[in-house]
Every structure is written in structure tokens, then in C-alpha cells.
Amino acid sequence: MSDYQKAIEKRRTFAIISHPDAGKTTLTEKLLLYGGAILSAGSVKGKKTNKHAVSDWMEIEKQRGISVTSSVMQFQYEGCCINILDTPGHQDFSEDTYRTLMAADSAVMVIDASKGVETQTKKLFKVCLLRHIPVFTFINKMDRAARDPFELLEHIESELGIATYAMNWPIGSGKDFKGVYERDYKRVLAFQGGDHGQREVDSVNGDLNDLKIRNLLGDDFHAQLCEEIELLDGASTEFDQNAVSCGALSPVFFGSALTNFGVEPFLEHFLKMTTSPLPRNSSAGEISPFDEAFTAFIFKIQANMNKAHRDRIAFMRIVSGHFEKGMEVYHMQGGRKIKLAQPQQFMADNREIVEEAYAGDVIGVFDPGIFSIGDTLCNTSKPISFDPIPTFAPEHFARIQQIDTMKRKQFIKGITQIAQEGAIQVFQELNLGMEEIIVGGVGVLQFDVLKQRLKSEYNVDIKLDILPYQCVRWIENEGLDPNLLNLTSDSKRVKDLKGRNLIIFANNWGIKWAAEQNKELILAEVGTIK
Ligand code: G4P
Predict the structure, then answer these.
(1) Which domain holds residue 44?
(2) Same domain, 264 and 332
(3) 25 CB less than 6 Å from ligand 1?
(4) Pfam families, from UniProt (predicted)?
(5) CA of 29, closest atom in ligand 1
(6) Quick check: CB of 446 below 6 Å from ligand 1?
(7) What is the pLDDT of residues 280-318, one digit of tens each?
(8) Can you give the pTM of this predicted structure?
(9) Within 10 A of 483 (CB to CB), how many other CB atoms are there?
(10) CA 129 to chain centre
């Protein structure tokens, strides 16, 4: 294997998905701790700001520096080069959260052991399903009162429709969380120390029948563990790596990110089972990460908060080839060659200029306003376009109107540019122009951001009225006239900026009605560009 192939083979690019408060930030921090990227826990930026109650975007940005620090973190561990992609949650939940999963090759799903699968996890899981990427489950907070582990596995299977395989088994929970039993090695890891999660935790390893282990756990826990392992071995299906690789089977790990219990064994197993960079589909067929020609796609655009420079940062996932600083690439959608200015990469809380990067890596470049979500960058000798990034259905809608009608041009420009960045989705009522615009987002904060950015960057004031709609569906039928559809009176026919027809519904009942009354109608939850 060449050095080039080795560099790609050792890369692991994944996202951590969870419902707020399940422990995503804590786990990320602990992975960085084990990877040597930080020396003690508590130093990952954005942890507190993630919980910011005020929906003041500028304020949030200011506190985070430029906020990009947490977009992707790279570190080395046991010969692997790991890229963790941040999926913004809490108040920041937006389409970016979904799009980040387009750049990941696998996902780690963090679940709170007392709560089980929660709404945001479900939504993010659906996106993983769409891509058939491997999903690894970390059942967190075992150091607190937790649901029965058998019940948790069943719950994940029934809520998400994915098969599970417990890689390890918890020994006790809450104050009595003593360790885990590793099924593949048939050994007990009894946790010790860890300095309340500040440092790496020690463990005593031993066979289930080892006297030392038995004494350490105590007779009751030992007997219970033996019984549960027997039950588990008898009940569960065989481990199947192929099923893991195509996202049909989720390996499950129990642990506690806060106390570090189970974090390192999780990381070790995960790195072995997860995938190196995956190929992506393009106009020229599948592009392998090992192709020598450079290719990448933009999956996230972040507005720069520095008003003096209205530039933005575009994040690209390298699909194939090798990136070197100062390299010229072909921007397919712009139809011209460009030099990627100040490419940056992020390590824990530092930003660094990237000298070189490989397939699987994510880099951020300054964007003078030329990029859109889904754009392809490639080598001039081999122009291709990657499959577009789908548009995800917003769940919040608002009608916006500009207050000063003299500023029409700035208003349209601002809305269009912000929509192009993917910060909001814009809909127009059929048969109406841009006089009345409906905006959609998957998180409510997106509207506050829009309002503030139109004001500060484009000097436009708007009036924003929240609309009582909850869902949107794209009409898949070519040539079907939406005006002829039989819909409930509270449904709205609209089109997006790409001219695709959609229907906005007040609730799921409206969708059901539309499907029942219009047999030929094909509705899609995710918008793809034809
Ligand atoms: P998130 O990014 O998924 O939103 O969750 P985050 O890691 O911020 O964790 C949410 C809360 O849960 C934090 O407590 C964190 O300390 C706690 N937590 C995370 N993992 C564990 C765990 O394994 N066990 C226990 N017992 N708690 C855990 P907080 O009090 O809200 O915040 P903080 O003051 O500790 O920062």
C-alpha cells in the first residue's frame, strides 16, 4: 500500500448525534482527552454556549470566537486520524445539523440511559438511514439511575427500527456502576479512579470467573452479571460486521462519559468497526477516496460575523485526492478555476492553516460569496458534480415582509444570499411573487438569525409572523398542476427558489388527507434536485 493510500485508510470521519443533554459534548470532550488533543476535561469550547438560553445569534457567535472552532475536530489515536464533525443542537439546531451528516461516514448516537431515544435523535437517525451509514450507539449516564439494559435495547429497536448488538454489558448502574463486560474478549473491565472524569480512567481486567473480579464486584453483582450474559448470549443474534457497515445493525456500548467509564473501550472498538472514508456518487459515477484527482463538496456555509468583511466560511468534505495549500481547483458550479484562500482546519479549540489534507478530511475556506451548499470542487482535468445535498423538511414557518418597501433590492438580495448559504429555506405562494415570502427552518432560532442578519448585513428591517404550519412535502410528480389538487383548506401550495412545487401542511392529518384524496400524488419528505 502506498503512503497516499495509507493516509486515507487511517482516516475516520464521523458525527456524534443526540438529543440535547444526552452527553454529546461530554463524550466529544472525553474522546479528545483520550486522543491526547486536550490535557484535561472541561476545555472544549462551546460547551456552555451550546446551552445559551438567549436566542441572540450575534452574542452566541461573539462568545464562541468565530464559532467555527467546534465545526470539526481532528486528532490522532492509535494510528487513526479522526475527524469529529459537530452537529449543532440545542438552540442551534438547523439544517446544518442534518447536512453535517452528509459529510460524515458514520455516526455515534448518544442516548441517555434514563430517557432512551428522544425526538432529536430520531430525526437525526432518519438522515443516517437515508445514507445507510453505520450507526454506533453509546448509552450514556450509566452512573445515574438507568433503565434496564435489556429494555433499552428493545426500545432502540422498536423506536428506530434498527437491530442492535450489545458489544459490552453494564455491571450495575447509578452509584453501583462498576464496569462493563466485553463480550468479544469475554472479559470484565472493572473501572477505578478517573479523577471524577478529569483524567483517563483505569480498569482491572479479568475473566468472568476470575476470583479477583468476583471479589471486586461482590457476589450479588457477579451472579447477576453471569445470569444476564447467559440470557444475552442465548437471545441475541450473531454479530455481523457487514450489517454494521450498511447501517442495518447498531453496535451498542454502555458507559458514562462524565466519569470516563467505558469511553476508551468504546473508542477502540468503534475505530475498528467503523469505516475509512466512503466513496460518493457523482455525475461520473462513484468517486473512490483513493482516486488521485482532488474532489470535494461544500456541505456547510457559515457567515462570518466580522461586519467589515462580509465573507463567509465554506466547509468542504474532501472526497478524493490530496489537498495542498495554495492549490488551484475547479469550481464546477461557478465554471472557473479558483485558489482556495486560507484553508483552515480545526483542532480542539485551535484553528490552524492547513498545509495538506486528504480524502475524509474537512477544511474551511474563506468564501467571498461564490459557493452554495452542495457545490463541487475538483481537478480541472476531471470535471464532475457530486449528487446534490438534499433539502430537509422545515418544521417551523414564518411569513416575512419588509418594513421599508424602498429597500426592495437589498431585501431580495439578502434573502437570496442567506437562503443560498442554507441558513433558511424560502417559499413563495403559488401565483404570488416575492411580495410575500414564507421562510422555513428546522429550528426556530433560524428566524432570529435571519432577522438580525438582514438588519446588520443588508440594513433591512422585516416583520416576521410565525405561521401555524408544521410540515412540508415536496411534490415529486413531474408536470402535475398543484392547483388541481384536492387539499384541506389549511394547506398551502408553494414553490421553492429552485422552482420545485411543495405543499405546506398544518399537521400530519393534512398530509394524510392529501394522499387519500389525490391517489396519483407522490410526496417526499426530503427534497432532491432533479
Ligand atoms: P449535550 O452536548 O448532549 O447537550 O450534553 P452535555 O455533554 O452538555 O451534557 C449534559 C449534562 O449531562 C451535563 O450536565 C453533563 O455534565 C451531564 N452528563 C454528561 N454525561 C454524563 C454522564 O455520563 N453521567 C452523568 N451523571 N452526567 C452526564 P450539566 O449539569 O447540565 O452541565 P455541567 O454543569 O456539568 O456542564
Answers:
(1) 10-76+105-273
(2) no
(3) yes
(4) EF-G_D2, GTP_EFTU, RF3_C
(5) 7
(6) no
(7) 999 999 999 999 999 999 999 887 655 555 667 888 999
(8) 0.89
(9) 8
(10) 12
